[in-house]
Amino acid sequence: MQGQGSAFNASRGLPACPDQSIVDSIYEAAFVPEIWPQILDHMAAAVTGHGTALFNPNEKTPRAISSASLAELDTKMVTEGWLQRNTRADRLLTIQHQGFVDEAKYVSPADYQAEPIFTEVLDPLGYGFGASTFITGPSGDKIIFAVEKKKSTGPITAEAIRYLDQLRPHLARATLMSSRLAFERINTAMAALQLSGLPAAMLSASGTVLGTNPLLEALEPQLMIAAHNSIRFQHVAANDILLQALQAFKLHGGLAGRSFPLPHYEECSPAVVHLVAIEGHARDIFSQAAFLMVVTPIDRSKVPSAETIQGLFDLTAAEAKVARELASGSNVANAAQDLSVSQDTVRTHIKAILAKSGMSRQTDFVAAIASIRTITG
Question: Where's the HTH luxR-type domain (predicted)?
Fold first, then answer.
């Protein structure tokens, strides 16, 4: 693939139509995402471009796949926050044309000299205008293909646009296939967690619910799918924590694992909510999935015995009793009352429990105990 793409150059001209091998590779990339960089390299080399980027600009934390030759540009876009304020992409999404466009026809010289994305990013790196198109997926996401050219190689030619337009129907079909596969992967993940006895949901970076399993739906009214397909807890503090996590993800593009408690509500047991950010290769460019949310209900009758907890975490007998109280949903005051000790004593034991278990938060420890119940219960 790489060698084939580099065989195209301006002096030899472009073929009348793409070789069947490149078309086959585009469809293969729908199933094997690692092939996309080869496709992008071909697109760039075929039209004397420097590289090609494939990205989803819809979320606040855009995702991208690009040619290795664009590494310097990618780094600048990420480290300086240009992905979140890419006016060039915003402009492209307003162009109603079902094909690749020569961006020079839609951006005036005055715009190029005034807009920061050009003056502070593209121009200093030697880039001129490129050729771009966007494809709307079944979820409403708009996937952009952008071929970047250095100014030194001259403008995009009409011949280059014609060649890219011949690839576009195949790129669109592969994008559609990738989106459907991403949706099926979400459903598969939810089903697997259902079999494990774990209520779960897949969320976008904005908190939109992309998929759930029946166990999660059974937690109503403690947890509900509300307006705009968003998660709503009866516990107000839990809603605040979820909102803070989403905002942190938008600002910083990442999130360490987060756990927080849900108190008992009506017939629903207390529970611990875990938020896990989907990062790296697990986060598909064709899917909006950004978080996995797993809820671990705490059933007092199924919490392991104090002796079991003591052995698992090398606790003292007194610490193990406090640990079981916490795992059963008790707070410091209730644990002190049940064990006939002071609240200060309970707090001292909690510090020791966290130190011995290697966990920094009480909710993480409770979640670990609840997980033991899930496996053995």
Answer: 312-369
